[in-house]
Amino acid sequence: EAGVAQSPRYKIIEKRQSVAFWCNPISGHATLYWYQQILGQGPKLLIQFQNNGVVDDSQLPKDRFSAERLKGVDSTLKIQPAKLEDSAVYLCASSFRVLNTEAFFGQGTRLTVV
Amino acid sequence: TQLLEQSPQFLSIQEGENLTVYCNSSSVFSSLQWYRQEPGEGPVLLVTVVTGGEVKKLKRLTFQFGDARKDSSLHITAAQPGDTGLYLCAGSGPGAGSYQLTFGKGTKLSVIP
Question: Which residues of chain A have a CB within 8 Å of the CB of B31?
């Protein structure tokens, strides 16, 4: 089966610019996650969707980050405006259900803000 | 605040040695998972443990879930260079906040040939 697809793989932008990342989860997976992974650290959950509804977005900096999952399939994460500290790898993952289940990750998008 | 503390943060060993890495929390989890991540890739699941005291083996890797479901360990026997990577534990359930899948900071393992 096809894995989690993410694009782009790499992005370099200047601070205060906007950027968007796209994720297509594994077919049939109801749960979709966006994680931020800063170099040398573990992934930090930004937002979790169950179908097209938000389950948890408590760690999403809502003044600059937004995410949507229209129709409960693919998802977009946007940053506007970007700051230097947003430089990180943004990982998308999906799972069949919410608890006690394997999360399948995409390769991530490496964002560099200069 | 990190709910899952992993130790050690870095580990460099010679090929053939044994090692153990730990994942600790003050919270109870419904399940704990171990992932391995290689540079430029997303994490890949190694194992899920759900029952307190559970032990699972995957070739040379042995995973244990603590009796109280607050901690876990990963033991590697006779480490190989191919074991090099970032080992992440992740918890879900009550300790993480209902449905979150929360990760620790990871243990970066280097196995020297």
Answer: 99-100
